[in-house]
Amino acid sequence: MQYMLLIYSSLEAAPAEGTPAQSAISAAYFAFSQKALEAGVMQAGAPLQGVDTATTVRVRSGERVITDGPFAETKEHLLGYYLLDCADLDEANAWAAQIPTATYGSIEVRPVLTIPGM
After folding, report:
1. Do the domain assignments include residue 83?
2. Residue 5's CB: how many other CB atoms inside 10 A?
């Protein structure tokens, strides 16, 4: 079964750009990705650009409404994702606990809904 692991953190909690701590997190992400690839569970994954590049699209009364920024004002923002193929939720949660941002942010684990014929 596929699970989407959504990575959230506040900008204040993340290590500052160009610092040794940020370099360590980057190295830890590379190691995690390699481990997931070698285990054969990683289907996809990518970091996202900053929330300042986001737009939210809604259709109201047949009209498209585009708003700059993410959907909701929150302290934590969606930073990226991994799509993993795991035997069950326990395995997906075990992988999520190894994502470096879990030490200062949060990882949401959600099963991907399988739609027959798609």
Report:
1. yes
2. 23
pLDDT (tens digit, 9 = 90+) per residue, 55-85? Answer: 888 899 999 988 887 666 667 889 999 999 9
Query: Burial code of 26-48, b = ≥16 C-beta within 10 A, e = fewer?
Result: eeebeebeeebeeeebbeebeee
- Give the number of domains in the chain: 1
Instruction: Confirm whether 104 is domain-assigned.
Output: yes
DSSP reduced 3-state for 33: helix
CATH of the domain at 71: 3.30.70.1060
Q: What average pLDDT does the segment 8-18 reach?
A: 88
What's the mean pLDDT in 39-57? 91
